[in-house]
From TrEMBL:
InterPro entries: YceD (IPR003772)
Pfam families xref list: YceD
Highest taxon, organism lineage: Bacteria
Protein name: DUF177 domain-containing protein
Length: 177
């Protein structure tokens, strides 16, 4: 296993630790590395900027990542590479989870020495950023509902007969102005 992707919270320097790395696609798709399901369908490596700091008893992990995945547009059904940017925000605390704690503190409790698999954290963040419906661009025109043509790459081939449309009579209206 690649130990560079594990961090032990008890061994964290007082100044904290920062990463600015490309996480290999091959590692994120390796089912033998970590417990979180692998991320399938990445176009390439994932860029990740990360900071781990200690504040009292809490360890704060924050950062930003950027990935690219092949997807189908929800409007025009064309294949494209979806650019996704996500945030990493975690809080860890060493020791067992308190039994009488009221509410959800948003903190993950880890037994000492507090080993965290950063690849699992990134995999989880990518899964949480997944959207069911994505579009190839904000200007995507989609498909014609009549003929099914992709309106981004061609024109509608429908023979439009809207003479029975309720507002068709307005076309013949002459306005003096």
């Amino acid at each position: 296993m690649q130990r560079q992707w594990f961090v032990t919270l008890q061994n964290l320097p007082a100044a904290g630790r920062a990463w600015d790395v490309e996480v290999p696609k091959k590692l994120l798709q390796d089912s033998d590395f970590g417990v979180v399901d692998v991320v399938a369908g990445l176009c390439g490596d994932v860029y990740w900027s990360l900071l781990l700091e200690r504040q009292g008893d809490l360890f704060h992990l924050t950062g930003q990542w950027r990935a690219e995945m092949p997807r189908q547009c929800s409007r025009c059904n064309a294949a494209f590479n979806w650019q996704v940017i996500g945030q990493t925000e975690r809080q860890f605390q060493l020791g067992p989870e308190p039994v009488n704690e009221e509410g959800d503190s948003g903190c993950e409790y880890i037994a000492a020495p507090g080993e965290v698999n950063l690849v699992d954290v990134l995999r989880e963040d990518i899964w949480l950023a997944w959207k069911a419906d994505v579009i190839c661009s904000e200007t995507c025109k989609g498909l014609c509902q009549g003929c099914g043509n992709n309106l981004n790459t061609g024109v509608c081939k429908c023979e439009q007969d809207d003479s029975d449309h309720p507002f068709a009579a307005l076309r013949n209206l002459k306005l003096d102005g």
